[in-house]
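Q: I have 224 residues here and want to know how they pack in 3D. Can you give me a structure?
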Amino acid sequence: MQRILLSLLLLASVFVPALSAQTKIGVVNMEIVLLAHPQTSENNKYLRDLGDKLEGEARKAEEAYKKAVDNFRGAEQQAREAQNNPIYTDLRKREAVDTLNQAAAAARNAEATYRRTLADMEKQIRKRQDECVGGVLQDINAELRKLAAEEGYAIVLDSSLERPVFPIPAVVYSTESVDLTDKLIARTKGDRATAEKALEESRKALEEMATRREAALNREANQE
């Protein structure tokens, strides 16, 4: 068994250099190229406007939900007082309970509407993002294929990718001579400085979004 493994390792050590000598491999940071593309700025403005509109609808649904919860708490307090008040008639006590049940149903409906609004907002934004990015990627991929063919690259790897479990780039090392990022940006009439700025803004926006989401979850937990 050890002899077989040794033979396989020796065979691999001979085969890999031969393959490397015949195969030209390049790398490109597709995230930077995408952000540098002139259409991306227009797409981002459209998505921001859409996000503002949908967030406005979500805020209205959230306010309606909070109001319904406040009404329920008020009805709950009145029902409790009615049950404990000896001078209230049975009819008045039943009316207080009915009001409480109606307020509870309204609060549940408002909560469902709020959650559905949030889900629809995320779905719409994700769909529009896919549409916008898809159009830009078609242009980038077309230019990348031409560039790779002209310079003889058989394989081009995306250096912006990371492994799903550990935050380690898929390409851990490459020389500048095989990096096609700037060439691809030039062919797609992009601007790298714009891309770097957009990338930093995107990171900050993601951090702010995560903070807002955590705060919203904490508010919901406290209300429960």
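Q: Anything worth noting?
A: The chain is about 80% helix and 5% strand. The beta strands are 25-28, 155-158.
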